[in-house]
Amino acid sequence: SESLEELNNVTLPGLQDDLQELQNLTGFMDGEAPATPTGLALSTELLNNESVIKVSFNANTETDVIGYEIAYSTDQVKWHYVTTTDTIVYLSVIANTLYYVRIRAFDAEGFKSAWTNIASITSAKDITAPTTPTGLTAEALFQKIILRWNANAEPDFDKYKIQVSTNNFSTVKETFYTSSNYLVYSGQTNTQYYFRVSAIDTSGNESAYSAIVSAITAAVYDEDLESTILDGLTANLNELNTVTLPNLQSELDSKLDDLPNEITETHIANNSISTPKIKANAITADKILANAVTSDKIAANAITAAKIGTNQIITNSANIANGVIQSAHIKDAAIETAKIKDAAVTNAKIANLAVDDAKIANLDAAKITSGYIDADRIDANSITVSKLVA
């Protein structure tokens, strides 16, 4: 009974009070995401010589909104986030740089609103120059000099300016820009060059120049370089004499062994050398062995007057085999007086009945050997008045 009294008089009233307190604490929650904040505005200025962006917007009216999330970026890919309960916030940023900004609200239940539209602004320029670069060194090589120095750490650092001189900056020869803290300079051999470096930030502020350094490019003649080149040439020459040339000689000998000593008739296929393959007057008497060209090697009408140079083939009777030149091989009137050497045509060279009326032009007495034309050589009624010279 005591326990029941305690339950009714103490425990249950205590639970009732706790429940009421909980209801008082959570009654403002609406179970919905907040509305998207409105009135987003951006401005920029220098505060304590530091570029800042002022972000302002209207407060949400929901009773369960407990804060806002601000996102800002230079590329709309990589975002930075700031959480706040204020509606005016100053963002410390890099000077003279374009920024994108958006915000959203969140409530006690963990709900978040949609993002606002993105606003953008270029941050204010500062007036503070970067620190002067330090640690500049110059290492000389053949026609090149490698420059190195310590990198600047300013968040608004943009690039370095490197100047080159050949007279310790009485005049400036060349100027280069780079975001890296090294440079490979290409110059002439055996020449002294002077260098200095300054740093430039995003607002265009430029530091003072670094200490001047100099270096002399290597001369064309260098004992170590010469030794290396000569060693390489010696090795290449040895390889040429002991490997490359002997291999080429072996290949050449092998190719020569495969060639015939001379081109004989076995190397030439029958009928492979045709008339178009032979230049006019290319085959002269000294190129033809006696009796080498027989009747079976000459096609009918293949040798015309245009193919025969004066006295080139028939220089004496020894070049004409008995019976080789038959009547079918002689064009009418093709053999003129000038083509026949005195006493070249003997009885043995003329086949019986090979020379008929059509083959004979005018014959004078000087072309006929005494006693060579006997009764057996004269066809009956073949000598007419037209064949006789007065």
What kind of oligomer do you see?
A: single chain
Mean pLDDT: 81
Trace the largest sheet across and list its strands.
4-3-6-7
Q: Profile the largest sheet.
A: 4 strands, antiparallel
Radius of gyration, CA atoms, in whole angstroms: 58 Å
What is the helix tally?
2
Tell me, what's the shape? elongated
Q: Provide the succession of SSEs.
A: HEEEEEEEEEEEEEEH
What class would the helix/strand composition place it in? alpha+beta
Notes on the structure:
There is one protein chain. This protein has 390 residues and is of the alpha+beta class. Helices cover 15% and strands 23% of the residues. The chain is built from two helices and 14 strands; from the N terminus they run H-E-E-E-E-E-E-E-E-E-E-E-E-E-E-H. The protein has helices at 2-26, 223-257, and strands spanning 41-47, 50-56, 65-73, 80-84, 88-92, 98-107, 119-122, 137-140, 144-148, 157-165, 174-178, 182-186, 192-201, 213-216. The strands form four sheets. The protein has a four-stranded antiparallel sheet with strand order 4-3-6-7, with no helix packed on it. It has a four-stranded antiparallel sheet with strand order 11-10-13-14, with no helix packed on it. A three-stranded antiparallel sheet has the order 1-2-5, with no helix packed on it. The N and C termini lie far apart (188 Å).
